[in-house]
Amino acid sequence: MTQPQQVPKNPQETHLNRARASIRQALSWYSNLRKPGQASANPKLAALVKPELEVLTASLNKLDHNMIVIAAFGLVSRGKSAVLNALLGQKILQTGPLHGVTQYPRSVRWNLGDKAQVELIDTPGLDEIAGEARSQMAKDVARQADLILFVVAGDITRTEYQALCELRQAQKPLILVFNKIDLYPDTDREKIYKNLQQLGAGSIQAKPLQPDEIVMIAAEPAPVEVRVEWPDGKVTYEWETPPPQIDELKQTLLKILNREGRSLIALNALMQARDAEEAIAFKTIDIRQQEAEALIWQFTKYKAVAVGLNPIAFLDVLGGTVADLALIRSLARLYGLPMTGYEAGRLLKTILFSSGGLLLGELGSSLILGLGKSTAAIASGDNPSNITAFAGSAIAQAGIAGYGAYAVGKAAQVYLEKGCTWGQLGASTVITEILAEVESNTILYRLRQELERNLGMADD
User: Fold this and answer.
1) How far is 359 from 350, CA to CA, in rounded Å?
2) What DSSP element (H or E) covers 152?
3) Residue 166: which residues within 8 A CB-CB, separation 6 or more?
4) Mean pLDDT by 10 residues, the chain (460 residues)
5) Which among 434, 113, 104, 124 is positioned nearest to 268, based on CA atoms?
6) How do strand 214-216 and strand 147-152 relate by DSSP bridges?
7) How far apart are CA 299 and CA 333, in angstroms?
């Protein structure tokens, strides 16, 4: 009997589902900060992390509503509002010849029927707002956006290039929109386009922009004078505004939304969740610093005494490792951060190998001393003077074990400050998995290349 063929899963749906599972897991973990009776419950801390918990909740809601956010950035008079009006097919956003018509970010819905739900965000010119306010506005809007449109109207200026590089740090896919092409002859237009392909990548070392990453349009073409001949032979001249040349941008956006729109939503939600979890971890560690220090010293003393008195070398090493794992998990419980035994083991291994061999060297020294101590213990019955050798080895080994425990505890704090975004459903893990699956013909591929340095991904 022929088995029915299994229908392959839609990668975009898989990405959405992974993102939902990751954020739900995070909300489940961090909700303990508010529950009375939990070891990690703390009213003061719960109030401090309320904004981050709201970000996690909002990110999950965004995934459920499947809403794609596209934000337009650029300098004054580059035509950002006109570009969005041309996409909408009607003049909703105010435009005009004066600088600074758009004074604050404004969002509108772009109705694409059943294809997708899209929110377009118009922003003020990046060069018309004071330094800190401009930077904060750009960060806030870019954080919300799943996709960024950066609008230029010719060769990139130094100010534009700086603003573009800053926006690329938001780690969002970006399309460079070359607007007002009607003002340039064909030869100049092509020359500018080639320059924009390289500069728009945000780095001289980066690969030039691909066709889906740069488009040429005229959102609001300049009026042209036309000659009108009347039936009576009279000739007049009138000004006529040509229709917008927006089809290239519209088709590019529709192709991206159909091909990878839900993956864009998933990645943006995960990035916001990752940042929120790291902020929760940092605030938690900051408020419980004294308790953590006391806990580390407590484990340091226990480990030193236990290892120093134990006469069997192998059990010294084993017991010391178990103590270090218990310390890591105890710190995580104190902070209210999730940590399984498997993750604690991975973290301990990372700490040992990232210490420049120092802790591994201490471990080896402890083993050698442990063997000497075991030999002295065995021989102590024949020669009581060996007890002195046993005590000397035990004291030295206890000191090494205590140092190791303290070093592991302090290093664990550093890793915990980054939040528990690792693990099977950790936000960073799922981001890495999604980007590892993107194809080279997608707009997410450039984002993958940019993030490889930060996430340590190996290029396929």
Assistant:
1) 11
2) strand 147-152
3) 135, 138
4) 50 92 87 56 76 92 89 90 92 62 76 78 78 74 92 92 87 93 93 91 80 93 87 86 93 92 93 89 79 82 65 57 80 73 75 53 48 46 47 55 72 69 79 89 85 51
5) 434
6) unpaired
7) 14
